[in-house]
Amino acid sequence: MPLPKAELHLHVEGTLEPELAFELAARNAVELPYADTDDLRKAYAFEDLQSFLNLYYELMAVLRTERDFEDLANAYLERAAAQGVRHAEIFFDPQAHIARGVPMGTVVEGLWRALGRSEDSHGVSTQLIMCFLRDESADSAMETLRAAEPYLDRIVGVGLDSAEVGHPPAKFREVYEAAAALGLRRVAHAGEEGPPEYITEALDVLGIERVDHGLRCMEDPALVERLVRERVPLTLCPLSNVRLRAVDVLAEHPLPAMLDAGLLCTVNSDDPAYFGGYVADNFHAVHDTLGLSTERMRELARNSFLASFLDHDEERRARYLAEVDAYEFTGN
Ligand SMILES: [Zn+2]
């Protein structure tokens, strides 16, 4: 039985496995420029963030109907449950779909067909976080927020993703203010490829409650001290960092130093179909390669629930934490 955990940094579009991509392509009569799943799997061996993003957006063409989004989310939830996930806060990228003529309602309602039943069907509680693409304009982000207003009973918060460098958080000040006024929680990718200043700016200007990635905070001791003092969680994605060259090799990942510094770190999978592993695979990788003790692994699992947006249901959070505390490690 895997260690119980929450997953807080997971892009649902990044869970599209080659087999499902071909199934949906056939269903929707979309032609993919790959001969078969093996051929497509070879394309998953990209070099950096941009080459990953190119494939990520190309494959989204197969997602057209509510049923497609439902099938995508169900496939993730089934895998997540098998990896010990009890609670998942799931990102989606509406602008990438709206730009292809797929309306917000199709995306949200389709995902909800899976998420709304997830506790019964998979034993996983869920929340949905809508991300803005930071390489699109601030106006486009604001239009996206307005398009989401009829669906806010389905959406707990907003995030910021895609190509980081050259797109500082302050560009999205107004849309984050509008999101806060609507009662939405706020997170943002910061300090993955971008500098530590982007983390500070996301905290101060966007009012974020959690930093996605954030590993480059380690270059700024004053920032580390602040993140520790304010108990700001970081959602780290170790296998993603290796695949996208944020670190050269996993053995050089700063996670142990970050935990030693007292940072509230969590471990997540980011885009698991593309980055070589789901969340438990990330846990195993850091345990094996970075030599983290079982008590450190338990701390990571505890942190995932402490950092989750379960404030409306503290009883549930306490139940999940009790499961982590009672967990017995058996040789892995
Ligand atoms: Zn991400």
From TrEMBL:
InterPro entries: A_deaminase_dom (IPR001365), ADE (IPR028892), Ado/ade_deaminase (IPR006330), Metal_Hydrolase (IPR032466). Pfam families: A_deaminase. It catalyses: adenine + H2O + H(+) = hypoxanthine + NH4(+). Its EC number is 3.5.4.2. Zn(2+) binds at residues 9, 11, 189, 270. Binds 1 zinc ion per subunit. Substrate binds at residue 271. Its cofactor is Zn(2+). The active site is at 192 (proton donor). It is an enzyme of class 3 (hydrolase). Keywords: Hydrolase, Metal-binding, Nucleotide metabolism, Zinc. GO terms for molecular function: hydrolase activity. The record marks 213 as: Important for catalytic activity. Residues 4-317 form the Adenosine deaminase domain. Belongs to the metallo-dependent hydrolases superfamily. Adenosine and AMP deaminases family. Adenine deaminase type 2 subfamily. Catalyzes the hydrolytic deamination of adenine to hypoxanthine. Plays an important role in the purine salvage pathway and in nitrogen catabolism. This is Adenine deaminase. It comes from Streptomyces gibsoniae.
